[in-house]
């Protein structure tokens, strides 16, 4: 029996996640359920897409990933199942699978077989009444063709990076518990892990010119922010042992701009802390 | 082997929940443990009763629900096991099972068999020393008669709705992660899901006259609060894509009043935002 | 197959914990994973050591406890496995196992067998790339000698209590969800559970002279703080049904001083609330 994972913005103070687990275990008693996260910022589809991307392919082949970040619950948005590479994905067709679908061929099915749903379907909680029963059905080996009808396309989020010859423009797509600010700039776009020495990343009021390999590397100036490739391959803005988000006043959605060949800071600016350099 | 669920106000930053799980797994290694929530507002028995009610009967028959929201730990309040319908409930006799016990016949047993407890019993952590061992014992098939003695009654919370011919008075019993304010008014008290067109719900400084079926239905005025039947059958106060609790300044315990035949708002009031209507 | 527990400061809003679980389940599909906590205050090794101590020995013999509170990830700090009593511990050699290692003989091994690691090792996430694979290997029965090389010593945290003939000096090492302030003073240092009647505990601006056995014992003065032995054997500072941390303005790291034979408060002081007594 495969694993079912859950990724939602339901939080952990309500009955929502537990009701989904009960529904799954009642229909598929041998299945193992693993939480990815339930603390996605409410209705933040992009952040959910990123967190799913960071976790999904560490799981065994055949794992069923259920994602319910679903501001449009009850409206016309379609419930779907996607088979991509070795994994199944269940959730609303709102772009939440955008990152994982870049990595493999995939098939999309609209969930239409109402005989698999809960006997009564609320208009506010499809996680419990549609997505959990469908995940249970998949774990029991019910084929995609019995779950719904084939679709030719799936909703994707707009690109989060604009590339020009000398710079990349993106934004902050997630802030982790340590205050690291994850940008939409990916290592896959570069030939190696080292940025050119002449790089400068602009974010909020800060201009960052230092890159590190690990968080506590050469902590000589603890107030200096640096960039680092995070463990899912996205460029992060960090500070040693403190929250870059708080200290640099950065938020999800803030624009960032990576210059690859920035003119060097002049001497007087260099002596100031890099967080205060004028742009 | 049945499932054991846990519902507490312990939070997730301490060893409390893990110690309970260790105790259970040591005594009943094959059991599957599922968290309902550990983020119940500290000592809030009513909120725990509501969250339990929203989740318990989605689990397979035979599931053992352990609830430890227990401000009176160490005092004279009794530890009990309740068998209600297809489920077992383990916890303090303080009203936390009030909602689920309205739905089925039940038997109550005071937990008295000390040979089933931990070898040393603290006065501060009966979740670990009494309730977890008893849940493990139930999962192993030990009969209720060996766990304790039959009681003729169980503690119930006071009614949370007062009904008069033209109105229902209740209060806010829970606020979910999205800021939806759950009232104690239940759909079961009405013949259908539609409130009369003349209804008005008073809460805090707001008077709400709109009902929706799903959260993003007809979002023409995003600042207008509405009521909606939540997925556990209670009337909620909501705002489209933002927190009603924050925006309307509502808290757990605040009184609400549902008028079924309210006089229509006059024109001048209508033009103002409904959240500012005088009561 | 033994249980693997996880204790980190990763929080629950990211993919970090799930990626570790995926790695473990991919390599050791039958293993049962239990969360101890992921809400350790970021980089707080002492708090993690305390939470581990409160939970570890309730689990079945053979349980593998993985602790990743690891500010030095990527630096020269060593990854280790410790076998202590009936349990295995996996994590960085930074003192996080200090409390559990006082209770049993132990053996320490530096993790060196790179063939057991992930195929690519990041410099920012050894929880996923080293510690999770090693825990999976242990759960599959791979012997310690194949995991690494024997070490003669392990990093321990400095003592958190200084004892003099008439007093004990320590500090607040953890604050729980209820606002109870856990000090580093342990019951094991005393012959019984009752402090001498002449005791006084100084913390922040408070002087506390009352000891209780359970939280709601004799609540005649709800604003009076008291001390109580917590369920892991450490002295806590508490208030009835409210947060001592908030009301007395106490934080992790604040010093506390326990006088065993304090002069009694004079009459005028006694009539004031004990939280305002001058020191």
Labels describing this entry:
homotrimer, 279 residues, alpha+beta, seven-stranded mixed beta sheet, 18% helix, disordered C terminus
Structure characterization notes:
Three copies of one chain form a homotrimer. Chain A is an alpha+beta fold and 279 residues long. Helix content of chain A is 18%, strand content 29%. In chain A, the strands form two sheets. In chain A, strands 8, 9, 10, 11, 12, 13, 14, 15 and 16 form a nine-stranded mixed sheet that branches. A seven-stranded mixed sheet of chain A has the order 2-1-3-5-4-6-7. The longest helix of chain A has 14 residues, at 126-139. Chain A is elongated and about 70 Å long. The relative contact order of chain A is 0.13. Chains in contact: A-B, A-C, B-C. Chains A and B meet through helix 1 of A and strand 2 and helix 2 of B.
């Amino acid at each position: 029996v495969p694993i079912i994972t859950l990724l939602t913005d339901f939080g952990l103070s309500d009955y929502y996640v537990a009701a989904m687990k009960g529904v799954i275990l009642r229909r598929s008693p041998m299945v193992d359920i693993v939480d990815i996260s339930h603390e996605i910022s409410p209705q933040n589809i992009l952040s959910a897409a990123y967190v799913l991307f960071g976790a999904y392919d560490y799981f065994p082949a055949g794992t069923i990933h259920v994602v319910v970040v679903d501001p449009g619950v009850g409206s016309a948005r379609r419930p779907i199942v996607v088979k991509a590479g070795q994994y199944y994905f269940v959730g609303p067709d709102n772009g939440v699978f955008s990152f994982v679908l870049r990595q493999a061929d995939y098939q999309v099915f609209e969930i239409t077989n109402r005989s698999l749903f809960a006997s009564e379907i609320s208009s506010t909680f499809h996680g419990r009444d549609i997505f959990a029963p469908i995940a249970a059905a998949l774990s029991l080996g019910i084929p995609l063709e019995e779950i719904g009808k084939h679709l030719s396309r799936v909703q994707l989020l707009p690109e989060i990076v604009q590339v020009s010859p000398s710079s990349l423009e993106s934004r902050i797509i997630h802030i982790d518990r340590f205050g690291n600010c994850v940008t939409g700039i990916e290592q896959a776009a570069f030939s190696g892990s080292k940025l050119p020495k002449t790089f400068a990343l602009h974010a909020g009021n800060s201009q960052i010119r230092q890159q590190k390999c690990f968080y506590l590397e050469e902590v000589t100036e603890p107030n200096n922010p640096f960039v680092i490739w995070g463990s899912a391959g996205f460029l992060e803005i960090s500070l040693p042992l403190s929250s870059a988000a708080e200290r640099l006043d950065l938020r999800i959605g803030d624009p960032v701009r990576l210059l690859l060949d920035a003119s060097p800071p002049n001497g007087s600016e260099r002596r100031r802390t890099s967080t205060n350099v004028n742009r």
